[in-house]
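for the record, two folds in this file. i put them one after another cuz i was lazy. first one right below, seq on top, C-alpha cells after. the second one comes after a little note so u can tell where it starts
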Amino acid sequence: MPFGIKWLRRQREQPKSAPSAEEQFRLLVEGVADYAIYLLAPDGTVTSWNPGAERIKGYRADEIVGQPFSRFFAPDDCAAGLPERILETARAEGRFEGEGVRVRKNGSRFHAHVVINAMKSAEGKLIGFAKVTRDVTERVEAQQSLQRIQEQLAQSQKMEALGQLTGGMAHDFNNMLAVITGAFQLCQRALGRGEQDKAQEYIASGLDGAKRATDLIKRLLAFARQQPLAPTALDANVLLRNMSEILRRTLSGDIELETVLAGGLWPINADQSQVESALVNLAANARDAMPQGGKLTIETANAHLDDRYAAQHVDVPPGQYVLIAVTDTGTGMSPEQAAKAFEPFFTTKTDNRGTGLGLAQVYGFAKQSGGHARIYSELGHGTTVKLYLPRSAIPPADSRPKRSENTPLGSTRETILVVEDEPRVRQLAAEGLRELGYSVIEADGAEAALNLMSQHSNIALLFTDVVMPKVDGRKLADEALRRRPGLKVLFTTGFTKNAIIHGGVLDPNTHFIAKPFTLEELAHKVREAIGR
C-alpha cells in the first residue's frame, strides 16, 4: 500500500483533539434553548446573545447587542428605576435573583425568573454581568389559576357556612321570639282578667326568653371575634379554684371533677368573664358527652409555641402561652366530627340540646384574645380541648374589688345625659336610670346633646350610643370632653366594630356596656363610670 494512503488512514483512525474549555462553554451556551444567557457591560449594555435569548425575547443578536438591557422591562418599571436598582444590587452584593414581568420584541409580556452575577477581574474590578433568564409564564399562570380555584372554593365554603349560620340563627331566634311574644300576649290577657300573679309568671317567662336571646347574641359575637374584651392580668390557677363550685354545679353528680394546677404558672392576659364563660361551656359539653358518668380533668401548664408549630397552624403567633386543658372520658368524636367541632351550630347531640355555639364561642374568644384553641378526640375514649391564652407581661392583681350583691342606686343630684337615636331604646334606658334614682335628660343625637350640655352644668355622666347618624358617639364624646374636661362617659352599642374598640379590645379606662343590658348591669356600669 502506498505510503500516502497509509498516512491518511492513520489520520482518520486517530481521535480528534478535544475542544478547549472556552469552546465547550461557547457550545453549551449556544446550545441551550430554554434559557436566555447573555453578558452585560458594567453600564447594562448587552454584549453577547445566545439562541435561547433570541427564542425567549424575540431579538436577533445583531438587533440587541449594544442596546441597554432596560429594553426588556415594562415602561412602568423603567420609569420606577427598576433596571438600575437590579444592577446596583448585583454590583453591591455580587448577585441578584428575582422574578418579574418582562417585554418581548413584539410587545407581549412574559414572567421571567432572572439571575444576574457580577463578573470581576483578578484585581476585583467590575468588568460586567452574566445574566440568565428563564421564561416561567406557564408555572406562574398555573399557580395563579390554582389560587383562583382555591379562592373560589374558600368563597363557596364561606357561603355554605353562612347558610348554616343564618339557618341556625333563624331557628333559635324564632323559638325565643315565640316565647317572648307568647308570654306577653298571655300577660295582656291575664291583666285584662285582673290575674296579677299569672301576669307576673308570664313576664318572668318572657324575660327568660329575652335573656336566652341575649346570651345567643353574645355567643355569636364571640364566634365572630367581635365581642368587646377587657383583658387584664389573671392567675388561671386562682380563677379555676374560685370557679370550682360553679363547675361542680354544671356537672352531674356521677361525674368526678379533678383539677391539676401547675406550679409557677405564668399570668395570662384575658377577659376574666370570657375565660369563665369558656370554661363553663367546655364543662357543659363534657357533661353531655358523659351521660353515664365519668371524669372531667382540668389542667394548667406553661406552654411555648415555637415557629415550627406556628407554621403548621393558621393564625397562631409563636410565643409564650398558658395552657388550660379540659379533658373528659366521654363518647368522643370521629376525626370528621372533630374537624367540624368549632364550626357554628355543629353539634353531635341528637336530642336538640344546646345551640351548637359553645365550642365556636370558645374558639372565637381564644382567637380574639390572641390565643389558640385545639381539640383532640377519639371515638369512645373522650375529648380534650386545649385553650392557649397569651402570657401577660405584668403580674395579676392580688385582689379584685367584689361587686356588691345589692343593685347600686343613684341620686337625683346626679344628672345623666342619655344620647340615643332610637326613640324606644332611649326611652327604656332613661326610664331604667330614673328607676335607679338618677335625674335624666335625653337627646336624639350629638347636636341636641351638645345644646343640652350648654344648658345644664351639673351633668355627671354622658351615656351615649356609639353608632349614630351624622356624628357618632366617639366624636360626640371627644367634643364633650373638649368643652368639659373630666366629664364621665359611658358608651353603649350593639355593634362592636367601632371607633372606641381597636381590634376588639377596649381602650384602657373606657367604660362600655353592650346592648342589650339588664337593669342590674346598667346600675353597676353607671356607678363604675361615675365613681363611688
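(here's the note) second protein begins now
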Amino acid sequence: MPDFNGTVRVMAVAWSKSKLGHGTSDVIVRDAVALTASAPRFITLGDEATLDMSIHNLEAPAGDYRLSVSQQPLDLVKGEAVSVADRPLSLKAGERIGERFAVKPTDVGLVTYELRVSGDNNLSVSRRLSFNVLPPAGDIKRTTVTTVAANGGKLTLNPDLVAGMIASRTKVNVSVGPAARLDVPGLLTSLDRYPYGCAEQTVSRALPLVYANAVAAEVGIAQDKDLKARIEKAIEHVFEMQDSSGAFSIWGSGEGDLWLTSYVTDFLTRAKEGGFTVRPIPFNQALDKLQNYVNNAQDFESGGEARAYALYVLARNARAPSGELRYYADTRLERFSTPLAKAQLGAALAMIGDKDRAERAFKAALAMFDADDAKRKSLARNDYGSSLRDGAALVTLASETGFVKSEAPRLVNVIAKAYLNRTYTSTQEQAWMLLAANALQDQSKATKLSIGGNPVTGSIMRSLTVEDLAKGLVVSNDGDSSVDAVISVIGASLVTEPSISKGFKIERQYYTLDGKQVDLKSAAGGAALLKQNDRLVAVVKIESDEASGRVLLV
C-alpha cells in the first residue's frame, strides 16, 4: 500500500467450470497516528516555503512522541540527510493537532523532505514531500569577446565570470582560434537546451551532431558516447513526420513543406555519409519526392528557395538532373531570391563537375549577401531563414566545395559580429553556424595554443563547469598571429537580468474574472497582495517592429 489513511475496498472473485462467485468488503486502513502533509508544487530559489502537517492520534496511547523533519540527499547511497527540525510532541488519545515548518532550499532542482512521528512500542510514521526549486532567472547568456596576442599572449578564466550564477545550472564555454567567434560550445549548449520537437527543430539540433565527435577529436575534447543513439533517435523521430508521398511537414500532419523536406533529407544524407543508420525505403521516398518536384516544377519569376535546395540534395546523392542545373545557372540565376538558394545551386553544380557555372553561382550569392537590400530583408521568408543563417550556410557550402574559399574569413567576421549582437538566435542560425565552424576546421590547424599549461594544436573549444574555474585557468597563444577568443556563460542566475527590448515590446495586464483590471505590481518586480483562491486572467500584448517572421513567445 502507498502512504494512505482511509477506507479500502477489497474485492475477490472465485470461479470453477460451472460456478462464479464474488465478495466485497470495505476495510479501514490507517496508522495508529495518522500523519498528512502538504507543500507547494514548486518554489523559486530564495523563497521560503511552509510545510503543513496534520497529526491525529487515532489508536496510539496518550503520551510523549517526537516529530522530526529532514531534507533528503539527491544521492540516497552516498548522501546524508540534513535535519531541519526535531522536537518533542505530546498527544492525547484521539487528539488532532497541526504543525508548521518553514524551509528555505539552498539549490535548484528537486528537493525532498521526510516528516516522521515516532514513539514507544516501535511506532514510526513517515511521509515524504517533494517539489521543484526553480532558478530566479533561467536561460541567461553572457558573452565576452577578446583577442589573445601573439607570442605568449594570455587569457585568464576565473570565478568572476560566473558571479551571481547558480553553479549546478551553469556552463562556461570557451573558444579560441580562427573560428572562435562562431562560439561552437555555446551554440551546442543552446541547441541542446532547446525544448521543442517539430521536424525543423529536431533536425537543427541533430544536424551539427553528425560532425560533433569529429570536431571533438580535432580540438581534443571528450567525445559524446551517446551521440550515435541521439542522432539515430532524431532520424526515427523525423521519419514519423513523413507522409506517404515522401514529404515532411512541420509536425507530421498537413501538407508537406518542400523546403523542409529538402532540409530533412539533407540531414539524412549527411547522417548516412557519417555512418549512421538511415532506413533506405523512407530515405529513397524522400529523394523521389524531391526528384518529382524538380522534374515537374513550373517556371518562376522569383523565389526558388525550395527548388535550389532540392537540386543540391539530389546532387549530393548523385541524382541531380545536370540539364536542369545548367539551365537555371544560365537563364534563371538572378530569379533566385536568397543568397542561400544561389549558393546551393553553385554547390550542386560543383558536385556534377561544372566548375565555371559553380563559380558564377557562388559569386552571385556573395554579391547578394553583401548588397544592402532592405526589401529582401523585410520580406516574409518561408525557408526559416535570415541573413545570419544565409551567411553561415554560404561559409559552409563554399568551404565544403572549395569555391570562393578566400571569402570565408570575411564572411566569418560578418556573421560573427551579427551573432554576438543577438540575444537570441534561431535553431536554423545555430545549426548552420556549427556546420560552418566544422567546415573551417582545416584553417585552425596552424594555431598553437596551450590551456592550463598543456599544449594544443589547433583551436580550443571547451565546455567548463563552475568548479573548473575555482583555481583559475590560463590560455596562452604560442603562435605568431593573434587569435580571437569568445567566452560564453550559459545557465541560470540568482538575479533576474534587466529587461531589454530588441524589436519586440511585450505587455501584460491582469483582470478579475468579471473584467475588472488589477494593478498587479508583483508582476513587474514590485509587491502585491493576492488572497487564497483569487483567480486572474492575464492578457498578453505583443508589438514588433519586424515586418514579419516566425515568432515563438515563451
